[in-house]
């Protein structure tokens, strides 16, 4: 008998398997699910007249890869909220079993337990809001504790739970499922326990795409555990828990070409979190600040006064007096939002300029994700699929003095053409967006000698696209980049950026000539996008104001 069978509600074990139509099979006529046979009248959602896959294999596989676990140990749920509910419904008998929590913590654990009629046994963090494993074990002594929820880092206090403590608690409570909720794990230094769920038979790890992957509205999360526990969750799941558009959104956002932009966003949020931590920590009226996840937990002296000031600035935060006197949970927002928050605390520094843009561009031929920041020189991470093109784009960003994170999954097996051109379009679009109203920007140029080569790029960010390319190449390709595409790149860029771009290049060596064009483009852009008269006010390349 597996642990799951031993701990599960007997009536769940006795249930017959759910009888549903199952996943569609290509080439079959589907008259088994009472669906409407006509395509939906919602544009861009062709398949939603059909029921979705109850457990989409591709997404399950992708999430398993993301968290480094076998697919059969992972169950995709409608947000990790749903995983909490499924666990409680699968294992807790009303009026008999109990659920353990460590307060103050995420309210859903106790909420779902009460809906199911399970008792809630609460331990507490220490008065310093630290996690004390011995105190937790002492509080969890009663029998029939089916589930113990450990949130790490904890919402709302940010307290991390040392993975060694989770292992120790799981070993000490062999007849309890210990659930490590890692909703904010991506924002924490603590290593994930996901790969240990299964090898440790009573450990369950919860993950979500809501926080780090920006998909709160799609409701996609998962539970990772021994397959016998996963099997039990499947029995309690509703027949079609995951809406088709949510499955599609999750697969799109977890595309490999999206990952560099996710990583860059997480890094930015952490840098902003640390900036807020530093500034709010020194603020009068703020007794203590902790950082965890993508949020801060403050303990303030006069919460009512703060509430008024935040309300006046139309800033919403969560007051958590029960978690700690004067407790306030504040989510880390964009730079501009955080600046508004600091202003509400009376910390009125000049707002840093924020000229950044993110572009995702998917066609049948390429999938591109790109983030650009004109006010930072780092990071530069470029993966076009064509190493020499990476090098050229890196030259543009390095000489342009801006940060560029770019990844493309393209049909390179057919031809580099689509990737090369689509990336140029995406880059131009991003530059245009990041420039905003382009105030104070005019005509700029740069001429660049490189050994025997002379390259010149003139740029006018006028909003009127025009491209002229004077020069020719003797070889068909340089480093896998077809030279015939070089003029196309400048044209695509001019069109999407809305700029007049004049390029002139002559010399002997095609490698120098191509590289000269890109470097000169970077140099011309550097002056074109610079904010006039405020060089010293720009954020440093380290991103610290
Ligand atoms: C936000 C949050 C969740 C819920 O995530 P969803 O996947 O959106 O349901 C779970 N646990 C904690 C601790 C959270 O803060």
Task: Give a summary of the structure in a few sentences.
With 545 residues, the protein is an alpha/beta fold. It has 16 helices and 21 strands.
The overall number of domains is 3
Oligomer: single chain
Count of strand segments: 21
The CATH superfamily of the largest domain appears as Type I PLP-dependent aspartate aminotransferase-like (Major domain)
**Low-confidence runs of at least 5 consecutive residues:** 534-545
Q: Identify the CATH architecture of the largest domain.
A: 3-Layer(aba) Sandwich
Q: DSSP strand (E) fraction?
A: 15-25%
The bound ligands are: pyridoxal-5'-phosphate
Number of alpha- plus pi-helical segments: 16
Biggest beta sheet attributes: 7 strands, mixed
Main-sheet strand order equals 1-7-6-5-4-2-3
CATH fold topology of the largest domain = Aspartate Aminotransferase, domain 2
Instruction: Determine the fraction of residues in helical runs and give it as a percent range.
Output: 25-40%
Mean pLDDT: 92
The class by helix and strand makeup works out as alpha/beta
């Amino acid at each position: 008998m597996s642990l799951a069978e031993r701990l599960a509600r007997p009536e769940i074990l006795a249930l017959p398997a759910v009888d549903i139509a199952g996943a569609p099979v290509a080439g079959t006529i589907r008259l088994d699910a009472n669906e409407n046979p006509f395509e939906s009248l919602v544009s861009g959602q062709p398949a939603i007249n059909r029921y979705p896959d109850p457990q989409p294999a591709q997404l399950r596989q992708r999430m398993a890869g993301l968290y480094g676990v076998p697919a059969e140990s992972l169950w995709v749920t409608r947000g990790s909220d749903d995983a909490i509910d499924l666990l409680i419904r699968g294992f807790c008998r009303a009026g008999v079993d109990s659920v353990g929590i460590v307060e103050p913590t995420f309210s859903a654990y106790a909420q779902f337990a009460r809906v199911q009629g399970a008792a809630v046994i609460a331990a507490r963090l220490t008065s310093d809001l630290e996690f004390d494993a011995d105190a937790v074990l002492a509080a969890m002594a009663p029998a029939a504790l089916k589930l113990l929820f450990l949130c790490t880092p904890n919402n709302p206090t940010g307290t991390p739970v040392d993975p060694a403590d989770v292992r120790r608690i799981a070993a000490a409570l062999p007849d309890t499922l210990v659930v490590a909720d890692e909703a904010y794990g991506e924002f924490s230094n603590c290593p994930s326990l996901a790969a240990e769920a299964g090898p440790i038979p009573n450990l369950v790890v919860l993950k979500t795409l809501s926080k780090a992957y920006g998909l709160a509205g799609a409701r996609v999360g998962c539970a990772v555990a021994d397959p016998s526990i996963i099997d039990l969750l499947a029995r309690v799941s509703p027949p079609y828990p995951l809406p088709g558009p949510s499955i599609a959104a999750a697969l799109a956002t977890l595309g490999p070409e999206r990952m560099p932009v996710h990583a860059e966003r997480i890094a930015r949020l952490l840098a902003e979190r640390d900036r807020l931590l530093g500034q709010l920590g020194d603020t009068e009226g703020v007794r203590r600040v902790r950082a965890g996840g993508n949020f801060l937990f403050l303990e303030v002296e006069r919460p009512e006064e703060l509430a008024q000031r935040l309300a006046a600035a139309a800033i919403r935060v969560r007051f958590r007096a029960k978690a700690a006197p004067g407790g306030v949970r504040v989510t880390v927002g964009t730079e501009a939002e955080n600046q508004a928050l600091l202003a509400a605390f009376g910390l009125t520094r000049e707002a840093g300029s924020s000229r950044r843009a993110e572009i995702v561009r998917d066609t049948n031929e390429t999938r591109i994700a790109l983030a650009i920041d004109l006010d930072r020189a780092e990071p530069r991470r470029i993966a076009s699929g064509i190493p020499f093109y990476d090098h050229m784009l890196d030259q543009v960003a390095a000489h342009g003095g801006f940060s560029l994170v770019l990844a493309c999954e393209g049909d390179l097996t057919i031809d580099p053409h689509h990737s090369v051109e689509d990336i140029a379009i995406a880059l131009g679009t991003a530059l245009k967006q990041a420039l905003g109203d382009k105030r104070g920007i005019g005509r700029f140029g740069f001429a660049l000698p490189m050994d025997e080569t002379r390259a010149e790029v003139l740029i006018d960010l006028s909003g009127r696209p025009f491209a002229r390319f004077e020069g020719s190449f003797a070889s068909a390709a340089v480093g896998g980049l077809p030279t015939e595409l070089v003029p196309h790149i400048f044209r695509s860029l001019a069109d999407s950026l809305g700029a007049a771009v004049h390029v002139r290049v002559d010399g002997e060596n095609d490698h120098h000539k191509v590289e000269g064009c890109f470097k000169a483009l970077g140099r011309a852009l550097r002056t074109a996008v610079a904010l006039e008269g405020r060089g010293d006010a720009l954020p440093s390349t380290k991103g610290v104001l």
